[in-house]
Amino acid sequence: MGVVHKYGGSSVATAAHIRAVAARVAKAYQQGEQVAVVASAMGKSTDALIALAREMGGADTPREMDALMATGEQQTVSLLALALQSLGVPAMSFTGAQCGMRTNSNHTRAKIVEIRAQAVEECIRSGKVPVVAGFQGVSQDGSITTLGRGGSDTTAVALAAALGWDCQIYTDVDSIFTADPRKCPGAKPLHRVTYEEMMEMASLGAGVLETRSVELAKKYGVKLYLGRSLEEDLRKGTYIMEWNETFEDMPVTGLSIKENCAMFTMGGLSADGKDVSRIFQLVAELDINVDMISQQTLPEGVLASFSCSAADAKLLLDKMETVGFSHRPIHQGTLTKLSLVGVGMRTHGGIAAAAFSALSGAGIPYYQVTTSEISISLTVDAKNQEKAIACLADTFSLREGSLEKEDKTQSPGPGQA
Q1: In the chain, which residues have pLDDT < 50?
Q2: Which one of 247, 287, 306, 335 is least enclosed by Cβ atoms within 10 Å?
């Protein structure tokens, strides 16, 4: 069995970075490992392409934007293949279309339909290293498509699934942490998390891995690892794996942080559902992603609330004004959504009580609360974000210096990863 290496934009940002990645891959190849590589566009090159498109006045044409954006990854894989060849490693670059990445026709956010990986498999059988452009595919009509945010991670996991290999995601962080270290100093590295926890954390705001890539890994049983580029000691990174009994030891695994949120609350809505339906029709027309939805039926009518990004909130308020919507919402902006995540919540009670008690004791007001089987989310005022993060992190031992509890953040033993 081989392994798919995926290198993000910061890992291939310059020619020197690409040569360093090539040396890493060459070492694995020369030690007898079967390796395939998926790479992102170099550094900020995607931003530069978007700026050029805007200069041309065509940044709102999805099909042409996809064709343009795909060139960033194609440049990287060609250079990486050349760098590998200079080190004596036979390598061949592949675009998304050439590697058989078939997608639907939803430009800028396409979904993978199937992978016809025969060309990549033949490359491997001939003793070469395939170097595949991430983030892109080809639709049934032959148009270039891109997979949206985190698309290169999705490409890597999908390729690993097609080959029956493991997948290692290399980026500019050492591992997945209990919380974003930039916002929670002392956050602990997690050396293993479950697929479910990682998907939940990603969907709730953790930006290390895209939800789709983890979902694919779980669905197809791909062993997934995340670590820092060029770090050869895999004990320092994070394994994303299936649940086992030891995951119950620590009920809360991590804290996801989503800034710049807003919350809408509307009361006195009709009990027949027509007002609520109209609100969410407006939301759908604006393609706004909402969460933390709740609805209550009160004597004075239905009370509905939901959260979205602050930018989307402005769009929705303007739309409501334009169409003359009769129910004016109570709008709370500048909020931060904090989400506690852990599969251990299934078997541990009192997590919500501990969180609410800690915030109340610290004098931090919190607002809308939603839960899933393995998460509890709430919003706080942005001005209280730092204090609330520290409060929850200390309550659930998510950062160094917290009162230690049973710790599940240890490296996996032999056979566990």
Answers
A1: 405-417
A2: 287
